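Supplementary Note 3. Input sequence used for the single-chain structure prediction.
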Amino acid sequence: MNQIVDYLQSQQPAMIQTLAQLVALESPSSVPSAVNAVGETLTRSFTALGAQVERLPQRAYGDHLRATWGQGEGQVLLLAHMDTVWALGETKRRPFHIEGDRATGPGSFDMKGGIVIGLFALQALRELGLAPAHRLVFLLNADEEVGSPTSRPVIESEARKSEVVLVLEPSREDALVTWRKGVGRFVMEIQGVASHSGAAHEQGVSALEEMAHQILRLEALTDYGRGSTVNVGVVRGGTVVNARPDFAHAEIDLRVVSAPEAERLTGDILGSRPVNPQTTVTVTGGMNRPPWEPSPQGDALFERARRVGQGLDMDLLPAGTGGGSDGNFTAALGVPTLDGLGCIGNDAHALTEWVDLALLPRKAALLAGLLLDLGR
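The predicted structure, written as discrete structure tokens, is reproduced below.
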């Protein structure tokens, strides 16, 4: 491990430069051409490392990338995403900035830092002549931040061919992610009856009043003891103040830790009934990402990573989170999955998002060491 650590420490300036370059390439999920610009840059980088790179064309979102190394019988799948939640122009307001050991910038933590770690871990193995015993597939998708609607079939197909899946989402300190809550997304629409708010108030039926009842019921489904949360995050309705609103719209987020809980609450939300029978309540949606539940196979994979980390003076800890990732899909298939192998920092999706630059080489060394260890 010493030679891997020494090599990656020597590459820290290059890692920071690559991170700055990727952050400057803004890549909101909704702008395919912008995400594709990141993909083109990474294609050149992966090709230089001897990978076979395939571009998987999409229409609604950017193209996904699949980079493959080696010819071993077994396969290890690496997952990362190129898209971010930030709109075009955000880097002009908040360009990549370094202060001490911290770097800030849109998408730096989630998750361009993870892409850098994956890229340099593979570069270290190649430059040091340390070939893993298995085939490596690095899949980078373009739509993770919107639920991976077009990449999910590709992710699941590659996962079924793989012995393990390693996800390069970020982490905090020395925690690796061994479980994640499942994510559900729903839309509620309520139809009422419009009328003049003064001259004919009694003739109208307020869709917003009904929505208020529904929001209180939905939020009351939250049960911290079970690890389940329901959040009504977006509400719209009405057109003018002097009319009884005949339409209301709400968007609902569900988080659960288990498949039975997902089934129970999905049925409850989809089965919503009006309090006022003069309104119509319609709910659509479902689970966007299945729960990633702890498993013996996943625990064994974490223990393997923990032992590798000990050689790097890292005291790794297992952790879970309410946020979903593409690891939810692979773990739900029964494939041992480990997440949080990306950069260390905090504040994903926030203006204050940051990356610990001093720890980039160490996290890349952990990934490189784990890839070698998995072939033993």
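The chain is about 35% helix and 25% strand. The first strand starts at residue 52 and ends at 56.
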